[in-house]
Amino acid sequence: MKVLTVIENIDIETGGGASERARQISLKLHDLGHDSKILTTSIHYSELTRSTLQHLNVVTLRSLYKRFWVPHPRFFLIKGLIKNSDVIHIVNHWTLLGLLSFFFCKIYKKPYFISPLGSLVIFGRSIIFKKIYNLIIGKKILASSEGCIVATLEEVNQLDELNIFPKEVFHIPNGVEEDNYTFDPLGKDFDELRTGIDYILFLGRLNKIKGPDILLKAFKIIASEKKDLDLVFAGPDDGMLAELEREASENNLQSRIHFLGYVAGEKKAKLISESLFMVIPSRKEAMSIVVLEAGIMSRPVVLTNVCGFDEVQDVDGGIVVEPNVESIHHGIKLLLNNRSELSSMGKRLETLVRDKYLWSSAALRHEKIFKSAVESVNTNHS
């Protein structure tokens, strides 16, 4: 089966959860014996990303305008990729690359699936543009697809609210690759951190949607009570680093709040493992992969109720809170006051993740859905 995944940003460092999902599903489909290709843009396409995808055919288009990620309109190239694929998987909703792919899917009568991954909600910049896009073509792209693959059940509600009814909706949660989370416990420690001091961890882009500013404000309240506690931000700057550093300095917390930038591999695994717990203060999230990373490393979490993963609290693997300073402060304090239970909570979250949220399982479900669509098309053409 020839599967083409279309996503505007596949980069490990800057692409976020949608990028991680697209990479992992594409790689797993390749491992299952399928011809797995990726169509993306060259923006942020790093050597690290290239190395992880070296076994796949990745086609990158130069972007003409970075804000709206306008891909170079290499129509013959895109046409050829679509025409020679059995099924197309379009990741995210508001992309010109996805729009171009949709047109060629219709021309060549190719089955395609959409994975919105949190992009259905009209949020952030370009609100008017997004509303016009939905009115003119966006809703049609979703409704005409073979199916909409959602990471959370909340996205099903969002489709209903937009009065969009695809042929089918498939709920396939995000996952984690357990082999990526190993490290040498005797390896080098982080020079940036205070020796012997416990810390709580934020992992992700420093972006308003991810809520690092909320977490910093909550930590300010706790800092005066817990002198032996630090806060670590690990993730690339996406517009908020200067603001966060300034606030830390203004409150004389620059020695206790650490900005490590992007971390990966063994360094990330070690950082997670040695934290007390992780905090995920997102204002909006399709389904947090970070909570799965915490789970695979047996660490509990404090996460907001917009992360699409309230199961954490159901299994007592962490605490679910509102996305505001007071609620996050309360959640952090609860875990700090129950340190003896943190290990047990982390183990319960690990059990949940290993039982239900591995990329290998998610890929098998994608394979089944894609095969069914291809077989249906072949039957209709015969």
SSE layout and pairings?
Blueprint: E1 2-6, H1 16-31, E2 35-41, H2 47-52, E3 57-61, E4 63-65, E5 70-71, H3 75-83, E6 87-91, H4 96-107, E7 112-115, H5 127-144, E8 147-150, H6 154-161, E9 169-171, E10 198-203, H7 212-223, E11 229-234, H8 241-250, E12 257-261, H9 265-273, E13 278-280, H10 289-296, E14 301-304, H11 311-314, E15 318-321, H12 325-336, H13 342-356, H14 359-381
Parallel strand pairs: 1-2, 1-6, 2-3, 6-7, 7-8, 8-9, 10-11, 11-12, 13-14, 14-15
Antiparallel strand pairs: 4-5
Helix pairs in contact: 1-14, 3-4, 7-8, 7-12, 10-13
Explain this structure to me?
By secondary structure, the chain is of the alpha/beta class. It has 2 domains: 2-175 and 359-381, Rossmann fold (3-Layer(aba) Sandwich), CATH 3.40.50.2000; 179-356, Rossmann fold. Helix content is 42%, strand content 17%. It is built from 14 helices and 15 strands. The strands form 4 sheets. Strands 3-2-1-6-7-8-9 form a 7-stranded parallel sheet, with helices on both faces. It has a 3-stranded parallel sheet with strand order 10-11-12, sandwiched between helices. Helix 4 links the parallel strand 6 (87-91) and strand 7. Helix 1 crosses helix 14 and helix 7 packs across helix 12 (325-336). The longest helix has 23 residues, at 359-381.
